[in-house]
Design brief:
0% strand
């Protein structure tokens, strides 16, 4: 097998994993909150439920920091348990506490597989090629959102989609894990990994993802409450993802610039995005414009942030785990709770203010910790 053929196979498998992993995320964050509201959950209860999975993503990296080893076998277990959690959803969704426990399991298992695959991808692909493979995750997200936006009539259809897509993620994830050749026999020395060394940068990552709490958990409900139909809302989600895909494909040259400055710029644009959603709630044209900024506030920000962490830490895999754990884990958990508590017409005003605090932390990071970009 030639090197070119081998790289094509690796890229294809990684693309398939991203496609189904983020399709799974799409069902979970876009449609399940609406299903819960339809079943009688309050916005605050939805916030608590959607704090569970991110909270477990925050806890998991510490388990690997202080004992567990992220190798292929544990990674495979996480994929199997993800499928198991989606099946448990069927039997627990009518009970708040039982469903909360199922979401804790789902969050813990989902928090293991993505950092593992991200490390494989970054070890095999260049920055520009990574974006072109990672965009298949965005395509998967968009496809499922458009499809369910037309077909979702009852809770069962969303739950069926979760189980099927989780199973496909398991299949391609298991294959992708076999390409961990560069890291499989190496155990990273975690004893010199310290979060406090770059405290302000980690705080910024936390606050940035907190600002997404209202968007990921309540955007669909928020727009529906302002008179926008579910089908139009699904197009709003998809338009944001289309812009994200374009950025992932063409962002390569941008990433040759100062990474910390890119992260600062993306954070500022994110604050602007939330203020637009606050000022023009339910106004379709403005909402679509705000969604176009997802290209910067997610795609460019995400790639710049994980690339910057590779410069900061020698422990690449552990750094990616903590990025997912602190940003999407603790940040997502606190963001969901805060958004559930603050839900109302001023929701995105508060999200914009939180994003500005994230920008302030980045400025302090540059002053106190230096710029490695």
């Amino acid at each position: 097998m030639t090197i070119t053929t081998n790289k094509f196979i690796i890229a294809s498998v990684l693309a398939s994993y991203y496609f189904f992993y983020f399709a799974l995320v799409g069902v979970y964050i876009v449609f399940l909150p609406k299903i819960l509201i339809d079943l009688g959950y309050s916005p605050f209860e939805v916030g608590i439920i959607y704090a569970a999975a991110p909270f477990m993503r925050f806890i998991v990296p510490f388990l690997f920091r202080y004992g567990l080893v992220l190798h292929y076998k544990n990674y495979l277990y996480s994929l199997l348990l993800t499928v198991g959690a989606t099946i448990i959803f069927w039997f627990t969704i009518d009970s708040f506490w039982s469903y909360l426990l199922a979401n804790l399991l789902f969050g813990a298992t989902m928090g293991i597989s993505l950092p593992y695959v991200e490390t494989i991808a970054l070890s095999h692909l260049s920055k520009s090629h990574y974006g072109k493979i990672r965009l298949w995750g965005s395509i998967g997200f968009m496809v499922i959102v458009l499809w369910l936006g037309k077909t979702l009539k009852e809770p069962n259809s969303g739950l069926i989609a979760l189980v099927v897509i989780a199973s496909l993620t398991l299949i391609f994830g298991a294959i992708a894990g076999r390409f961990d050749t560069s890291l499989k026999n190496q155990i990273e020395d975690s004893s010199t990994f310290y979060l406090r060394t770059y405290m302000w940068f980690w705080l910024s990552l936390l606050l940035m993802q907190m600002s997404f709490g209202g968007f990921y958990n309540f955007f669909t409900i928020y727009q529906e409450s302002h008179g926008v139909s579910l089908e139009i809302i699904s197009w709003m989600w998809s338009f944001g993802v289309i812009c994200e895909i374009l950025m992932l494909y063409f962002q390569g040259p941008l990433l040759q610039r100062n990474l910390l400055k890119i992260i600062q710029f993306a954070t500022l644009i994110t604050a602007l995005r939330w203020f637009i959603l606050y000022l023009f709630a339910g106004e379709v044209g403005f909402v679509f414009f705000a969604q176009s900024l997802h290209a910067i506030s997610f795609a460019l920000y995400h790639t710049a942030a994980i690339s910057y962490l590779l410069l900061l830490y020698a422990q690449k895999k552990l750094a990616q785990q903590f990025f997912l754990g602190i940003a999407f884990g603790l940040g997502g958990s606190l963001g969901a709770i805060v958004a559930g508590k603050l839900y109302g017409d001023n929701l995105f005003l508060w999200q914009g203010i939180i994003a500005l605090f994230s920008l302030l932390a980045l400025v302090l990071s540059e002053k106190k910790e230096g710029n490695r970009g």
